[in-house]
Amino acid sequence: MCILIFSCLLSLLDTTQLGGLIGSLSTSGKSFFSVDWHDKILISIQVPRNRYWGLHPPPAPLENVIDDGLTAIQRAVFLKKAGVETAVDDDFHLNPPSRADLLESAIQNMIRYLQACRDNDLTPSLREGVDTLLMYLYRALNRVDDMERLASCENSCVVEELETLLNDSGHLRTLAFLYAGKGMSAKALGIWCILARNYSQSSYYKEQSEETESTTENEDSTTDLQVASRKVIFGRETAAIEASRILEESSDQELVLQHLGWIADINQTLAVQVLISEKRINQLSPDEVIAAIDLKKVEILQRYLQWLIEEQYSDDTRFHTTYALLLAKSALETYEMELTTQNSVAGALKNEMYVSEFGASSIFETPVRERFQIFLESSDLYDAEDVLDLIEESELWLEKLGHETLVLQILALKLEDCEAAE
Ligand SMILES: *[C@@H]1O[C@H](CO)[C@@H](O)[C@H](O)[C@H]1NC(C)=O
Ligand SMILES: *[C@@H]1O[C@H](CO)[C@@H](O)[C@H](O)[C@H]1NC(C)=O
Ligand SMILES: *[C@@H]1O[C@H](CO)[C@@H](O)[C@H](O)[C@H]1NC(C)=O
Q: Quick check: pTM over 0.85?
């Protein structure tokens, strides 16, 4: 029977025929093994019967092949009961295989065969047929890991043949990997965005019910919830990582800026990596990037400006001034934060929160104060007067922070230099 199936398959491995086989199999995921398969099997044999079919049987839907085989077995069993000698051994006819088992094992054998085919030297169209069919068969058995592995390695899958199928059966990650591999970045990003959003909305309860195995291991129900929430966070992170990987190589500025926001919501470091990536062919326009960054995500803006100035050697005075002003504001905010923390009754407790909120989550390693001072000294291109104005507005700075007068001294020197130069 296997030989029959393989020859069907081989004769179908021409992309025009492939559609036929896929059509014959592509009932919706669950009904693949369902009873009403007869109605759904439609196959068009476009190749005329010729001498080839004398040696090899013409293509037929897998289900037909299996049914023919089962009929043959039943006939043999019947004959045996009637006392006629047959080739069927006793074991086999006492336990005839079920149709579903046969179909599954046939598909598994086809998968093994196609996997071996991939190592051979095939023509491009044959390669397309093998990979597309392989993806189709993985899906039929819901082998998600194999689907994702195939989709994310170099492959010749025909995306158009698979996208509706994968979308409808909810194999969106596989589809996103396929899109990305074929350079269909916008579509891939669209999926990662949907997935990231969905992970953050999806209820933990559903995830929990899927975690039945871990329930038996961990009797503590909070652990279960932690597992579930970790899964959600992991899903979101993965979506953001995959999306940023695509965007780091993309010179499509509109696409980058369109997806920057949700990636930054998940992980600011990833958003920064996208913006300062040197893997793209054409750099992004700094003005449009700066305009697009959410003003609430100050650290991203700071890091981007720092990159423009320190790594791209931009001498645009607007960037220098904006950067200096942003650092000044952040430094002031940090002082205020420290002050309220110290004054608070539950100071110790809040101090811990302060560390986790403003220490660990910061994308910078050095404290803003230090960065501010270093920048003021190292650059001559910012508007010292603007920075001084900002600082002087803050009573806090002048009253409480006598020890930070270094900043004021630097600014005074810069201003003197300016006046001297004029
Ligand atoms: C994918 O499926 C969703 C609903 O599940 C549908 O709204 C959307 O149009 C589908 N997209 C494609 C490309 O088929
Ligand atoms: C979104 O999450 C819900 C609930 O967890 C799930 O049923 C649904 O299939 C998900 N949709 C997508 C597109 O992943
Ligand atoms: C954000 O992504 C970076 C780089 O992938 C990673 O090192 C970091 O741990 C992530 N941060 C968080 C808060 O998940």
A: no
